[in-house]
Write a structure and sequence with these properties.
CATH class of the largest domain: Mainly Alpha
Oligomer: single chain
Order of helices and strands: HHHHHHHHHHHHEHEEHEHEEEEHEHEHEE
Radius of gyration: 29 Å
Shape: elongated
CATH architecture of the largest domain: Up-down Bundle
CATH topology of the largest domain: Cytochrome Bc1 Complex, Chain C
Number of strands: 12
Length: 552
């Protein structure tokens, strides 16, 4: 008959050392799970092609910034030759396209395709953030600023197409005039500006030029807001990704250069034309559905409001009984009398939830740290980073971590096999149903492996690993999510500190011990994980002299 452990420490251990029930709710809300499954499958397929470190789906935000810089650079060149008048606009664009075919024409095409690429990347990024459940709670500012960016970029593209002043621009101008005329903000009917060629004046072109130049400034402000609550945001993709994108834009611009339609002529109706579906899709849709301007505003506004309010529409469902992390999430508190103002907790926080205040005159340290609850993700990174034990999360402090590890190795039920390996497992790395046993303290596939489930592997510090060895562990496994797909941006934090050649306070990898293994896995690799765990356990042997060796 199988014996199970109590879920907590012995009675002589403090109550805070008992396993806490997670306060974070179900990992992925039920409504998002089908989309999340498809998203992770897609990421894993691309991982096989590019590798996790170069997977473009992990750099969508950085790719968006790259495309923005390309647009600004190419747009600056185009404006050097642009004639800001109705009669000269089309001719100046044609001069770039035809007379400067091998430089101006390529730059114009790169400008066009970079704009299309930005729309695609942002749309994918929004879908990715939605289905990975990274838009609620402490991430709501990033979500609403990202959603706000989408129509701003669409308007920027629309003004760009208008400035060419060809038949596509004519279609945009006439249709948009009727739609905006439904708003009671204009003293004169908007369509009057496009009744005949002479009615289009230079002032209108000046306004559209001003918008096209001013909107990028708004984009940069929104991008800053989008990143302001993220510690160490990645805004530059890897060099290989950057070179690939630039090369693709150049090749595409040569193979299929962007060209203008026939010049705009308001004396005749526009016939069939090729359009850019990434920016101009609403216009044929409005025509096909025969929507009145009021319905366009009502329907579009309602849809946008729903997307905008998504962080508050989707709430936490009931936590699954199979997800019972050892280290529960909860309120993060700092004992000010113990805080030394060393700033390590601030460096470890992925969402800039720890700020500093000057201490009162006469205090031993100049500053003290405090937690901004609305920004805190309850990831626990700061808990074990604090070298003086001044921080706790939901009752868990460095001392409680150590007490629980001691419980796993010294006070376990003697009916069980003595543990050999200590495994720290991220609760989001894979579905742990039927994977653990004995109240989630042992691996079912190998009961010689003790388990401590955490919100993220970023909670584990070199000091905690050292303590595990001290308690009798002969090997350490740290099992987390696939690299750059970490829910709490752990891998991005590690990228920041990776250049430090010394032993790093944040990185277990820097301990350079062969008995420590970091496994960043896909949620679909459970069977392979079982074999790797068994192989690692078998490889770790106890040295009779008291040291640790790894027999390979």
């Amino acid at each position: 008959m199988e014996k199970t452990l109590s879920s907590g420490n012995p009675q002589n251990q403090s109550e805070a050392s008992q396993p806490k029930k997670s306060q974070s709710g179900q990992l992925i809300p039920a409504v998002l799970r089908p989309g999340n499954y498809m998203l992770v499958r897609t990421q894993e397929a691309l991982n096989k092609i590019f590798g996790p470190s170069m997977n473009p789906l992990y750099y969508l935000g950085a790719i968006t910034f790259l495309l923005l810089w390309i647009l600004i650079a190419t747009g600056t060149y185009l404006y050097l030759f642009y004639d800001m008048t109705p009669s000269g606009a089309y001719k100046s664009v044609q001069y770039l396209t035809e007379d400067q075919k091998w430089y101006g024409g390529i730059i114009r095409s790169m400008h066009r395709y970079a704009a299309d690429g930005m729309m695609i990347v942002i749309a994918i990024h929004i879908v990715q953030v939605l289905f990975s459940d990274r838009f609620r709670k402490y991430r709501w500012v990033a979500w609403i600023s990202g959603v706000a960016i989408l129509p701003v970029i669409w308007l920027e593209g629309l003004t760009g197409y208008f400035l060419v002043w060809d038949e596509v621009a004519q279609m945009i101008a006439v249709t948009s005039a009727h739609i905006f005329d439904a708003l009671p903000i204009f003293s004169e009917p908007m369509p009057r500006n496009f009744l005949k060629n002479d009615s289009v004046n230079a002032l209108l072109f000046f306004i559209f030029n001003y918008l096209h130049l001013a909107i990028p400034c708004l984009l940069l402000i929104l991008a800053w807001i989008h990143c302001m609550r993220i510690s160490m945001p990645v805004i530059n993709p890897p060099r290989a990704v950057t070179i690939t994108i630039l090369s693709t834009l150049v090749v595409l611009s040569i193979i299929k250069p962007a060209v203008s339609a026939d010049p705009a002529d308001l004396s005749r109706l526009v016939g069939v034309m090729a359009i850019d579906w990434f920016y101009l899709f609403p216009f044929p849709l409005i025509d096909w559905l025969e929507l009145q301007p009021a319905m366009v505003w009502l329907g579009g506004g309602l849809l946008y409001a729903i997307v905008f309010a998504m962080p508050w529409i989707i709430s936490d469902p009931v936590k699954s009984k199979y997800i019972n992390p050892t280290v529960g999430q909860g309120t993060v508190t700092i004992t000010q009398s113990d805080c030394t103002g060393c700033l390590l907790c601030q460096k470890a926080c992925p969402f800039e939830a720890i700020e500093l205040n000057p201490r009162l005159e006469g205090a031993p340290n100049e500053v003290e740290a405090y937690v901004v609850d609305d920004l805190c993700s309850e990831c626990g990174f700061c808990v074990n980073t604090c070298e003086v034990g001044a921080i706790s999360m939901g009752g868990w402090s460095v001392t409680e971590f150590q007490n629980y590890i001691e419980f796993l190795f010294k006070n376990y039920n003697k009916m069980l096999v003595e543990p050999v390996v200590m495994a720290f497992v991220c609760e989001r790395s894979f579905d742990q149903k039927a994977f653990f046993t004995h109240e989630n303290t042992r691996m079912k596939c190998c009961e010689e492996v003790a388990v401590m489930t955490t919100p993220c592997i970023g909670v584990i510090s070199p000091a905690i690993v050292d303590y595990s060895f001290k308690m009798g562990a002969e090997g350490i496994l740290v099992i987390g999510c696939r690299g750059l797909d970490c829910h709490y941006r752990e891998e991005r934090r590690r990228l920041k500190f990776r250049d430090n050649l010394k032993r790093d306070r944040f990185m277990v990898e820097k301990m350079d011990d062969p008995n420590i293994e970091i496994m960043l896995i896909s949620p679909f690799e459970k069977e392979a994980l079982k074999k790797e765990i068994e192989d690692f356990k078998n490889a770790v042997k106890v040295d009779k002299s008291g040291g640790r060796i790894l027999n390979g």
